[in-house]
Amino acid sequence: MGKKLEDNGLAERRRIISAYMEQPGRVERETWRSLRPVLDEQKVEEIEHTLALSLRSHVRVTVELYDPLERRRLSGFVTSIHTHSREFKLQWAEEWKWLLVDDVLEAYIV
Fold first, then answer.
1. What is the share, in percent, of the chain residues with pLDDT greater than 90?
2. H helices, E strands: number in the chain
3. How confident is the model at residue 50 (pLDDT cuts 50, 70, 90)?
């Protein structure tokens, strides 16, 4: 039980999904993992604009990130953007994380 609490049950969910995906007649696991939503150009520009606004105006932004198993949501302040590598640094409290712009499905100011 303690192991499930440590990783919020992710290992168990991945095991169940893997077992389901390996059943005959199911979509190949690698194909299923690659089913990433394709955003249109206008949506990508909107996301980029929202991230830049957070950086310039120091306002909190919430981003929804692509994950093959579940939709992840993070909220914080954009403190740096690297346009050449399409990464941005999201900081909250005393923590921070570098994220890829291409992994963002939705971004909005809170």
1. 58
2. 4, 5
3. very high
| Cβ neighbour number for residue 93 with a 10 Å cutoff | 6
Phi, psi (5° rounding) for residue 54?
-60, -40
Do 79 and 85 form a contact (C-beta atoms < 8 A)?
A: no
DSSP state of 2: H
Q: For the chain, how long is the longest CA-to-CA vector?
A: 52
The tokens for 35 are 């089913």
* Closest C-alpha among 64, 69, 75 to residue 103: 64
**Strands, E, within the chain: which ranges?**
61-65, 72-82, 87-92, 95-100, 104-109
Is the pLDDT assigned to residue 19 strictly greater than 90? Answer: no
pLDDT, tens only, 65-75: 998 887 799 99
Q: What pTM was estimated for this model as a whole?
A: 0.68
